[in-house]
Design brief:
Length: 109
Amino acid sequence: MNDRVTPPMHALPDGEAELTLVVRLPWEDVARLGQDAGRLAAQMRRPVTLEEAVSHRLRSTRVASHAKPAGEQPPAVSASASVSSLPSRPPAEQARQAIDRINGTAGTA
């Protein structure tokens, strides 16, 4: 960890901050983000990037956790909390299945 550079943080005019992250995700998570992006694009009636889908998910999670009654702590969230545990498969098979799900061709082959 000592050889990594801290990513810069930028203040935005709307009062938010922007920082760049590199995150390693299983293909199943990438497929789910693609599905989230598709749903968000349909709601917004415009193309949506995966980055926008991630920001939207983080914001909606933050808003939902703040809406809990006083004294109730939000559950701890791990990096893969929204992903069901699946049996381990080779990475190439995971990638193929994730791409099929994103393309909507899962189960048609």
